[in-house]
Amino acid sequence: DETFPNLMRAVFQTQPEVAHVYLGSRRHVIESIFNDRHEPFWRSARQVELGRLPEQALAPYLRGRFAVTDRGIDDEAIARLLAITDGHPYATQELAFFTWGHVPLGHAAHPEDVDAALTDALRAEHNNLARVWEGATKNERLVLLALRQGPLNLYSEETRRATGLPTPTFVQRAVGSLTRDDIVEKTGDGRYALAEPFLCEWL
Fold first, then answer.
1. Strand 108-109 and strand 184-186: pairing?
2. pTM score, two decimals?
3. What is the C-alpha to C-alpha distance for residues 194 and 148, in angstroms, rounded to an integer?
């Protein structure tokens, strides 16, 4: 609803003593609301990107959640689970839930349970991931296939030769579209990686 930000601003202006926190996972939507000078919330908030959750926080949390249900999860299973989800909160929760479902009461999860759970998660996410693939252009698909092995400098000649990517102009257009849709993200070292959880495994 394009009129909703105007309504929100009108209400918030009557509440000078109230602080607001805006949360969202769609980066391009947040940026358009707060970074466009024609929008009512232009420059009204400071943006903070939370990023992935660190393994040192997730590992004990997973152990604790399994333990309260009289199940366990060994270190190798946790390492396998977090290697797949890369600290993505929703993906970690989903894969942990399916892993938990493979563990009988009084037993512990092992890496093979995580692998079985991954099959369940991919089945659950299939429609979403298929929609990403089917909606992608030919060049966007080439970028997705290149990134399934991990983060890359998509504009280097070496990468383009190894992965069959088109010229940098076409790569840039494809990356721009995929980044806007939060399917691909730029890493801290300037490379690009798949941001959509489970897409790498699905491809």
1. unpaired
2. 0.77
3. 7
